[in-house]
């Protein structure tokens, strides 16, 4: 059955295409121009020349190192989340212990703690522990703040495993450990991929913890590199925008190859 | 109190433990670890860093203890410094503005008095101009060695823009107002102002107050006399500033423009504005992105005189210099002393001059001709030599906690959100200690 | 973004739990003990709960980062509620949050419903729509600060639209920029939520309505909107909590200025703590934020009766 086209929504979508597309065009056009061509033509013109200098000079400014740092942080955060959350979610879903349900409430409460709220004591803790200006000092709190959402998403996924399967395994005398590895983990792959993408995005895009907890170039992550580039050379617009483009390339790749997982990770919800 | 501290120690140990676990879990990643044979030197990140890097490289060639240069971009420097200075990650040596900027650290007993260093090498004191060296002397003890150039605030202009408009660099306030009118009529923003950064706006207040009331008014205010801000002179200065703003001197979008991202100096260099009031670092900033303009078309004068004012027309406002101060807890005081000695070396002086900075060593004068712009260096040097007073920037003279509300009041007066009375109240509310 | 997503799942899983208590009649053997939850709980307690407790303690102390903290009772609390900038920051936070909801909700419902359709070109177009999601808040703010520079960005070339380009120099336009940028950044996320929900609406409902002769608008208001109700609540909680904790955008775009005109509470907290080194006042503001975020989320959930309507949510995936 054919439905009539929805003109209002169609118009809104066209307007949105313009609002999203124009800045993206300006961004891409500016990054392939030299600074002088850009200032002659202005942001809205068709690019006159073509150069990749802006990208290479971003790497000269240290973006290569920032990339590496961000990758380290991201991998470590995902690692910690993968290490801690599946057992936690398993306990939340399957344990009959009263303490576990208390723990679950603790994590629910954790959802209401914005990172900003704890930044002052976090700074104090990290620096007392000798981890200031050290990537580990960024990794630990970033991972901690990924836990509540990850725990909720993954326990949601584990709840959908049919109880009969557990019962069947219990009949065979399986230990909780065996159930975890042979039943729970394989059947919650969807939830696992969601928490991987979610925590990777949190780490990749994190700003506040690196801002307050690091300072030198050797520990700079990409978001901070962008911020510093902006505060120092804010009107070198082609260079600045090239750096912005570079910062999104890895996420774009994930988007192209694992769109579904990315979308679910972004929402941090509905990741069933 | 004690329990709280112990509680957080325990937590910190927990954090360290978690860190150790992470390390083993991910096989040790590339995070940097502070080695023992290093001195960390923290400086304000800007165009002058290339000289600092060169000095560090030179030092590291011969020294067993290596210097690591860390930079923090200008906009965040002061706050980041105070955040880390009482933590285990504090640097060994750090950049500062002397005077009020290090007073809280001296109070908290964090800094190493340099008197021992000076006793071993008198040149650490004698090689510098006394008036400059003294601004980092607190309670009779030296806490800083000058390490950049003196930075008076000057009125810069674009020679070509002024010539095209038939405007002479103004010597008096009235001439400045005339120049503003002429430039505005030509469709050029008369004065570039990085209002988004707020402190460039403050410079106009500092000079007008100094010219009209002399340096005493600010001294009184800083010592806690709130009436100083409500005085006739204070109101007169505000009235004149208002007149300048209302004449369209800064255009209309100055609060969207910044100096720190090179916005306002670019306006000047591209001929979109005629003047900019800025510290002498304007020269090295512009030289960094438009060398030809800095050398040929960048003009400069002292701030115009204000006839009838109590202040001396030769008086200056700005930063006397920047200083390296040393943390008490440094493990390598000898190496630090050696490093500081480079600050009066001939090479260092020449390198600073080459990028347009004016070091304040006694041997500076003999190298003035080797500078990037000998004329500019001579001009500045004479200005500083003749100045009867050199007012430290207000935001450096006040305690750090006053800086944000002070900047906001300044911005709000110029954009019209505060009237003179509102501004006076805001200044009276600033903490003075 | 962090917290914006974070909040989403809370109510949902709460309800998930309450609606399916003590699963099944499984034998008591083979259940994991509490030990499985210990490592994550300790880690979380150390890095989130303990700092939160310390914020509470710190809000009754005076500390400048240099000397030892001193206990000062309620001083910080009376000071922040006497502080006009703090009061203004609460209003600004509410205003920006409401602007965000008002702009993003209708737009993302329209877009989501449209994108849920089946025509082929939609796939391509909606791929472009979602590009802002790939950028971090930092990157988005840096991008827009560059694009909106009065002298070197778009306003210089489009004076007919932007005038003198003083977007960051006036309160009204500075707030406008902040609201617009967060709309630009987050509308795609909400569109995704609505797209998923709209796809799950049974087509039978529309077919029945069509037979009854209901027009497009009637269908939209009588079928689509009611069916999207749960998504609307999810998305609004995301927006409200995200609005309360907006930080990067303000730091990079306006620095709370001009003056204090866009100093929202989260930024004011940062400013108090890390610019004025008044850590006590910063901690007090931080607690206000936590409490506000919790209360608002709870109120929205309760008011909407959201916790009793898990049923329709099941369709969304």
UniProtKB/TrEMBL annotation, chain A:
<feature type="transmembrane region" description="Helical">
    <location>
        <begin position="138"/>
        <end position="158"/>
    </location>
</feature>
<feature type="domain" description="ABC transmembrane type-1">
    <location>
        <begin position="67"/>
        <end position="258"/>
    </location>
</feature>
<dbReference type="Pfam" id="PF00528">
    <property type="entry name" value="BPD_transp_1"/>
</dbReference>
<dbReference type="GO" id="GO:0005886">
    <property type="term" value="C:plasma membrane"/>
</dbReference>
<feature type="transmembrane region" description="Helical">
    <location>
        <begin position="7"/>
        <end position="28"/>
    </location>
</feature>
<feature type="transmembrane region" description="Helical">
    <location>
        <begin position="235"/>
        <end position="258"/>
    </location>
</feature>
<keyword id="KW-0472">Membrane</keyword>
<keyword id="KW-1133">Transmembrane helix</keyword>
<keyword id="KW-0812">Transmembrane</keyword>
<dbReference type="InterPro" id="IPR000515">
    <property type="entry name" value="MetI-like"/>
</dbReference>
<protein>
    <submittedName>
        <fullName>ABC transporter permease</fullName>
    </submittedName>
</protein>
<feature type="transmembrane region" description="Helical">
    <location>
        <begin position="179"/>
        <end position="204"/>
    </location>
</feature>
<feature type="transmembrane region" description="Helical">
    <location>
        <begin position="102"/>
        <end position="126"/>
    </location>
</feature>
<keyword id="KW-1003">Cell membrane</keyword>
<dbReference type="InterPro" id="IPR035906">
    <property type="entry name" value="MetI-like_sf"/>
</dbReference>
Automatic annotation (TrEMBL), chain B:
<dbReference type="InterPro" id="IPR050490">
    <property type="entry name" value="Bact_solute-bd_prot1"/>
</dbReference>
<dbReference type="InterPro" id="IPR006059">
    <property type="entry name" value="SBP"/>
</dbReference>
<protein>
    <submittedName>
        <fullName>Extracellular solute-binding protein</fullName>
    </submittedName>
</protein>
<dbReference type="Pfam" id="PF01547">
    <property type="entry name" value="SBP_bac_1"/>
</dbReference>
<feature type="signal peptide">
    <location>
        <begin position="1"/>
        <end position="27"/>
    </location>
</feature>
<keyword id="KW-0732">Signal</keyword>
From TrEMBL, chain C:
<feature type="region of interest" description="Disordered">
    <location>
        <begin position="1"/>
        <end position="25"/>
    </location>
</feature>
<dbReference type="InterPro" id="IPR000515">
    <property type="entry name" value="MetI-like"/>
</dbReference>
<dbReference type="GO" id="GO:0005886">
    <property type="term" value="C:plasma membrane"/>
</dbReference>
<keyword id="KW-0472">Membrane</keyword>
<feature type="transmembrane region" description="Helical">
    <location>
        <begin position="33"/>
        <end position="61"/>
    </location>
</feature>
<keyword id="KW-1003">Cell membrane</keyword>
<feature type="transmembrane region" description="Helical">
    <location>
        <begin position="279"/>
        <end position="301"/>
    </location>
</feature>
<protein>
    <submittedName>
        <fullName>ABC transporter</fullName>
    </submittedName>
</protein>
<feature type="domain" description="ABC transmembrane type-1">
    <location>
        <begin position="90"/>
        <end position="300"/>
    </location>
</feature>
<feature type="transmembrane region" description="Helical">
    <location>
        <begin position="90"/>
        <end position="115"/>
    </location>
</feature>
<dbReference type="InterPro" id="IPR051393">
    <property type="entry name" value="ABC_transporter_permease"/>
</dbReference>
<keyword id="KW-1133">Transmembrane helix</keyword>
<dbReference type="InterPro" id="IPR035906">
    <property type="entry name" value="MetI-like_sf"/>
</dbReference>
<dbReference type="Pfam" id="PF00528">
    <property type="entry name" value="BPD_transp_1"/>
</dbReference>
<feature type="transmembrane region" description="Helical">
    <location>
        <begin position="167"/>
        <end position="186"/>
    </location>
</feature>
